[in-house]
Amino acid sequence: MSFDELFAPMKEPMILAAGISIIVGAIAVVAGLTYFKKWGWLYKNWLTTVDHKKIGVMYVFVALIMLFRGGIDALLMRAQTAIPENGLLNSEHYNEIFTTHGLIMILFMAMPFIIGLMNIVVPLQIGARDVAFPRLNALSFWLFAAGAGLLNVSFVIGGSPNAGWTAYFPLAGTEFNPGVGNNYYAWALQISGIGTLMTGINFITTIFKMRAPGMKLMKMPMFTWSALITNVIITFAFPVLTVALALMTLDRQFGTKFFAMQDGGMDMMWANLFWVWGHPEVYIVILPAFGIYSEIIATFARKNLYGYKSMVMSMVIISLLSFMVWAHHFYTMGHGVMVNGVFSTTTMLIAVPTGVKIFNWLLTMRHGKIQFTTPMLYALAFIPIFTIGGVTGVMLAMASADYQYHNTMFLVAHFHYVLIPGVVFGVLAGYHYWWPKIFGFRLNEKLGKSAFWFIILGFNIAFFPLFILGLDGYARRMYTYSADTGYGPLNMVSFLGALMMGVGFILLCYNIYYSFRHSPRETTGDPWDARSLEWATHSPVPEYNFAVVPKINQLDEYWFAKKEGRDITAGEYERIHMPNNSSAPMWMAGVMFLFAFFFVFSVWAGVIVFGLATLGFLAYRSFEKDDGHYIEVAEIVETERRLGGEQ
């Protein structure tokens, strides 16, 4: 690839402006860290950390950046379609934006936000001092960050993926896409997906092996249950994506014909492999949000969660059915009546356990003393909005009706009515709820509620018109349309709603700055008077989480201990073994980033060098002896005194 081809995207004025802003921003960050002499602090405390809480914070930080990036893409798409025959974006740029918007929002915003909250909360909820494999946890984060970086680099070097976030063949093949954009797709998802798969294994091991004494499975908090089931889905679903992406790479870069339309290939095999992973992926991001809502509703309704066992069972059933519905994504591709009928039935069935959960939450709130905090507002808004998404999903589940709906904006409205309340509202609720646990102060409630109303109202104004436009025949993926169609007014309304959501996001970010400057610091580790075990330790949480590992006798042990005047963390201190920090995960992910970058452009010398370097890291780790370190009793006593506010 020539130099001109390499930087061809920079010929677009908006991409050039974005590239310049990235360079200027990077220079500003480097200058700030240098001026304030923070490089050592950053390296020691964050870049090399294996502390699950700090890794979780880094996941959430990157997720917020990706939310900004994906939100800009969404605003550009809505701006392009706000008026007929708009020339803001050309067709190629629009294709790149709607492709990267889907990828970023699902895989590089929702996934890291969910995994970040899991990292922060799950070990605390089960009374553990860290995850089972701390260094593997750090490597998982850095591989995700490498994948996110690779996808974002594509926008300015070589060109972004442009075949849609599903990358259907033959459109994603070299016949129609000879550039490197979809090579970026394959490698960005491959690297981050490997990190996610390792996270799944890590958290399953952590939850099964590191629970506090007495915490049986049916005494675990609901968020931990949702995390366990989610990570089981990850370990079964992500290997399918790994194989599919490897086959995509072989087709695009080595001339094989797995997904070709000739020489024995089958383009439909990609669609099947993608959705065998892709539909469980929907529940990978939604089930933890269900767990978050369960924690928040029980806390702010001042009641125990109604129907605990049915909630657990409904999530187990959802996880099983999630692998049995994938073909509903392509009813129109010629399966036949029998296959379409089977998948139509399983798709409708999965609505049943989801409906059970809705009634559980409603009955939890019944006769409760509800506190309308910012996290609770997101939980309350979720129920009716998600129900609209679920009902329209049942409409789409009917194979015969789907022939009419499937390629229209009705479908776009449906999956946004599922994913935004089902995931985005969930992670924002959890973000506000657990913020004081990590940082020792609450986000400002007034600003939080203002952001909430902008986001909620903006969302409905942006996406409800798309139901009407879809039923009126407005097709997906159209980058422009004529005035004669009559689609202009509702598209303009949708754009205004998207702008309102943008204002909500700005308020969300400003709230961090304002609260950091002005919010009073908490004097308790339990500012919400909550129920589960993470609130039994200090805020912010010390490195070792619990000075004394609590013993659990019942569900919501911490809640009952508070009411009975018991301290479940009381006991004699002993020295605590903790893992050492390590720079290896960050450097290994950097090497894999370069390996993938050179692979994208088929620069085989670079591939060989950085491939061997990756193997070198693995070999070094195999022979490394790292026994961790001990926190002595005197240090524990001092930390507990300081965090407990004792003089």
From TrEMBL:
Q: Show the GO MF annotations.
A: copper ion binding; cytochrome-c oxidase activity; heme binding; oxidoreductase activity, acting on diphenols and related substances as donors, oxygen as acceptor
Quote the PROSITE patterns the UniProt record gives.
COX1, COX1_CUB
Where does it primarily localize?
membrane
Please list the cofactors this protein needs. Cu cation; ferriheme a
Segments forming a coiled coil = none
Primary role = Catalyzes quinol oxidation with the concomitant reduction of oxygen to water.
Q: In which pathway does it act?
A: Energy metabolism; oxidative phosphorylation
Q: How many and how are cofactors bound here?
A: Binds a copper B center. Heme A3.
- Provide the topology term for how it sits in the membrane: Multi-pass membrane protein
Q: List UniProt keywords, sorted A-Z.
A: Cell membrane, Copper, Electron transport, Heme, Hydrogen ion transport, Ion transport, Iron, Membrane, Metal-binding, Oxidoreductase, Respiratory chain, Translocase, Transmembrane, Transmembrane helix, Transport
User: Mind telling me which residue stretches traverse the membrane in this protein?
Assistant: 15-36, 57-77, 97-124, 136-157, 184-204, 225-248, 312-331, 337-356, 377-399, 411-431, 451-471, 491-513, 587-620
Which Gene3D superfamilies did the record assign? 1.10.287.70, Cytochrome c oxidase-like, subunit I domain (1.20.210.10)
Q: Which GO terms describe its biological process?
A: electron transport coupled proton transport; oxidative phosphorylation; respiratory electron transport chain
Spell out the protein name for this chain: Quinol oxidase subunit 1
Top EC group: oxidoreductase
Q: Which organism is it from?
A: Rummeliibacillus stabekisii
